[in-house]
Write a structure and sequence with these properties.
mainly alpha; 18 helices; Alpha-Beta Plaits; four-stranded antiparallel β-sheet; Growth Hormone, Chain: A; 70% helix; 2 domains; elongated
Length: 513
C-alpha cells in the first residue's frame, strides 16, 4: 500500500517538474530561468529538511504523511488558478514550484523512516532498491503523462491530475493500520530534536562521509537534468515529446539496474560502486553535451539512469545502515538535505555557466569536475566498511531518583580506576565514548584525570534535563553495550565504576513570589 502511495507521490512530483520546466521555456528563453525551476523544486528540502525530519521522529508519522499530501493538493490548486487567470510569470512559477517542493521536503523524511518499520534490517537494501524502482518508474510514468496532457489539453491539466493523486494518496494512507508508538517520556521538543540530530551528524564520521559523497554526486549530475529541456529542444526534431522520451529513458535504465543491484553490491564495495557510477554518469553527460541525434541521446540517458541508481542506492543504503531507529528520520532528512541542496545549488551554478558560455560547455565542465572530486573524496575519506550493531537494547538499567528534578541540567560522573600503564589506550577508547554520549543527545562531555592519583579518571556528562538524561537510555544499542564492556575492561577497582548524578543548581530557574 505504501509502495503504491510512494509511486503516486513521485509520479506527481515528476509531472509537476516536467510541466513547470516546459512552461518556463514558453515564458523565457534564458538558461538560468529554466535551470532555476530545478532549484526551486529542490531547495525546500535543503531549507526544511532538518525540521521535517525532527517532526517525523517525534509526531505520529501516519498523520504527518497525510498532511503533506493535502499540502501538495493545495499547491496544485494554486498553480491551476494562476494559469487560468493568465497571471503566470517566471517569478510566480518559481515561487509556486518552491511551495510545491515544501510538500516533498516534508514527506520524504517520514517515508524514509517508515520503511525500516516494515522490513527486517537484512532486507532493507532490497526494500530500498524496490523503492528506487518506484522512484524511477515514476520518472517514466510522470513525464509520459505530463507530455500527453501538455500536448493534448495543456499544462493546467497536469496540475489538476497532481491534486487528484495527492488527495487519493492521503486517503490510502488513512487506511494504514499503524501500531501506536508508546512515549512514556512524552514527545521531544522540536528544537531539542533538531539539536540532537545535528549532534549525531557531527559525531558520526560514517554519516558525514555519506553526505559529502551524495552532495558531490548530485551537485554535478544535476547539471544534465536542469538543462535537459534545452538539450532536448536543440536535438534534431526536438520538442516536448523528446524531453519526455529522454526522461523516460533515464528511468528505464535505473529500473533495469535496480533488478540486479544486489548482485552488483556483492561484487564491489560502496566506494567502488560510487566511483564507477560517477564515471558512467560523467561519460553519459559528456555524450549529451555534443549529441545531435535523439537516438544517441536516448542511449546516453539510459546510461545516466543506470549510473544514478547505482550511486544513489549505494549511498542511501549506507546512510540507513548507519542510523539507529530513534534518529532515522532526522538522519535521512539530512541526507536528503545534502542531496537536494547540492541539486539546487548545482542547477543554479551550471545554469549560470551555461548562460555565460554554452549549454554544451557547462555539461562538459560538470562531467570532468564530477569524476575528479569523487576520486579525491574516496582517497581522503575512505569507507571503513565496518557496520555498528544498532539493534536497540534495554541492557542499561534506567536510573531511579527519589525526587526527580523538574528543571536544571543534570551532571553524571563515572569514576574509573585505571592502570597508569594503560592510560593512553583508555583515553583513546574514551574518545569513542565521547562521540557516543554526544550522539545520544548529551550537552557536553569531559574526561578528567586526578592530578594526585594518575590512575583515577572521571567521565563527566551533562544533559539538558532529567527527562533528556532518561531519553539517552531509550537510545542504547548493542554497539553501545559493547563499548561499555570495553571501557569497564580497563577498570581495576574492586567494585564497578562509581556513577553519581547531580542536578546543576546554577541552571535551575527559581521562581520568586
Amino acid at each position: 500500500m505504501l509502495w503504491f502511495t510512494w509511486l503516486a507521490a513521485n509520479t506527481s512530483q515528476w509531472m509537476n517538474d516536467v510541466a513547470a520546466a516546459w512552461m518556463m521555456t514558453s515564458l523565457t528563453t534564458l538558461p538560468i530561468w529554466v535551470a532555476l525551476v530545478q532549484t526551486a523544486s529542490t531547495l525546500p528540502v535543503f531549507v526544511l529538511g532538518l525540521p521535517s525530519g525532527a517532526l517525523a521522529d517525534i509526531v505520529d508519522r501516519k498523520r504527518f504523511f497525510m498532511l503533506t499530501q493535502f499540502w501538495v493538493a493545495a499547491m496544485a490548486l494554486l498553480l491551476c488558478a494562476a494559469i487560468l487567470s493568465g497571471a503566470m510569470t517566471p517569478a510566480l512559477l518559481l515561487a509556486l514550484t518552491f511551495a510545491n517542493g515544501v510538500g516533498l521536503a516534508m514527506r520524504w523524511p517520514v517515508f524514509a523512516a517508515i520503511v525500516p518499520e516494515l522490513v527486517p534490517r537484512r532486507q532493507l537494501p532490497a526494500a530500498l532498491a524496490l523503492n528506487a524502482v518506484s522512484a524511477n518508474a515514476s520518472r517514466i510514468i510522470g513525464p509520459l503523462l505530463a507530455g500527453v496532457l501538455i500536448a493534448s489539453l495543456g499544462s493546467v491539466y497536469v496540475f489538476v491530475l497532481n491534486g487528484i493523486l495527492a488527495v487519493l494518496s492521503a486517503w490510502v494512507i488513512s487506511r494504514w493500520k499503524r501500531e501506536p508508538v508508546s512515549r512514556p517520556l512524552g514527545r521531544e521538543k522540536l528544537f531539542s530534536a533538531m539539536r540532537v540530530g545535528m549532534q549525531f551528524l557531527r559525531q558520526s564520521s560514517h554519516l558525514r562521509g555519506v553526505l559529502v559523497r551524495i552532495s558531490l554526486v548530485f551537485f554535478h549530475s544535476t547539471a544534465l537534468l536542469a538543462m535537459l529541456p534545452l538539450v532536448a529542444r536543440d536535438l534534431r526534431g526536438g520538442g516536448a515529446g523528446t524531453y519526455t522520451l529522454l526522461l523516460a529513458s533515464m528511468g528505464t535504465g535505473a529500473i533495469v539496474v535496480a533488478m540486479v543491484l544486489q548482485r552488483v553490491r556483492e561484487r564491489w564495495s560502496r566506494d567502488g560502486l560510487v566511483v564507477r557510477g560517477v564515471i558512467l554518469q560523467s561519460a553519459a553527460m559528456a555524450v549529451m553535451a555534443v549529441a545531435h541525434s535523439p537516438v544517441v541521446a536516448v542511449l546516453a540517458m539510459f546510461a545516466t539512469g543506470m549510473a544514478w541508481i547505482t550511486t544513489a542506492n549505494s549511498l542511501g543504503v549506507s546512510a540507513q545502515m548507519g542510523l539507529p531507529d530513534w534518529v532515522r528520520a532526522r538522519g535521512m532528512s539530512m541526507y536528503q538535505m545534502a542531496l537536494m541542496g547540492a541539486s539546487a545549488s548545482g542547477a543554479a551554478v551550471w545554469g549560470q555557466v551555461a548562460t555565460i558560455t554554452t549549454v554544451s560547455t557547462s555539461l562538459l565542465i560538470a562531467s570532468a569536475s564530477g569524476v575528479l572530486c569523487t576520486l579525491l573524496v574516496s582517497r581522503l575519506m575512505p569507507d571503513s566498511g565496518v557496520e555498528e550493531d544498532l539493534t536497540p537494547t534495554n541492557q542499561f538499567r534506567l536510573p531511579v531518583a527519589q525526587a526527580p528534578p523538574d528543571s536544571g541540567h543534570v551532571m553524571v560522573t563515572i569514576e574509573y580506576r585505571i592502570d597508569p600503564a594503560r592510560a593512553s589506550d583508555f583515553r583513546a577508547l574514551m574518545q569513542e565514548s565521547r562521540r557516543g554520549r554526544l550522539r545520544h543527545g548529551a550537552l557536553s562531555w569531559e574526561l578528567l584525570r586526578d592530578i594526585g592519583d594518575p590512575g583515577r579518571f572521571i567521565e563527566q556528562i551533562v544533559d539538558a534535563s532529567w527527562t533528556d538524561h532518561l531519553r539517552r537510555f531509550d537510545r542504547v544499542t548493542a554497539a553501545d553495550v559493547a563499548l561499555r564492556d570495553r571501557k569497564q575492561a580497563f577498570h581495576i577497582g574492586e567494585s564497578p565504576p562509581l556513577v553519581t548524578r547531580c542536578v546543576m543548581e546554577s541552571t535551575i530557574r527559581h521562581r520568586s513570589g
